[in-house]
Amino acid sequence: MEGGQPIRIYCKGDTTLNMAVRGNELRLVRDDPNDESQHWIQDYSVGRVTDDQGRRAFALVNNLGGTRRVVLISTKNNRQLEMAPYGDCVKLSMLWSLGVQLPGGYSEVRVLSDLSKTLNGINGFVKEGTVVGIYSAEPHSIHAIWKFDPINK
Prior knowledge:
This is Ricin B lectin domain-containing protein. The protein is mainly β.
């Protein structure tokens, strides 16, 4: 896995809420630069894989407790995301790409295998505890466009 500076991931709807690991789910939680569950690596070491528009693929990796885990589309429910061990074998369901950059530096975070599906605050909610999953692309919705920024401790 390529290293790199840890990033926080947040949607336009509330820049004080970051995507974080809670159990085996992803949720929006209050920004806390010391909370490792909110620290992500945008890992491009998956090779030269690109989406249908030529944008480079990446995995979203969290290292909570020293164990590398990756965001994965659930096999039980195709709108849910879960965390899975991250190693040498990278499945297509672990890969993402960024859509075009929108004003303010936000982009859709798209499922590599289906660009019509994106990272989303489920049910359009942007509040503490909201489940983050995947849903149909909504490039102008504040719960469906995201920004990756370095963690400032």
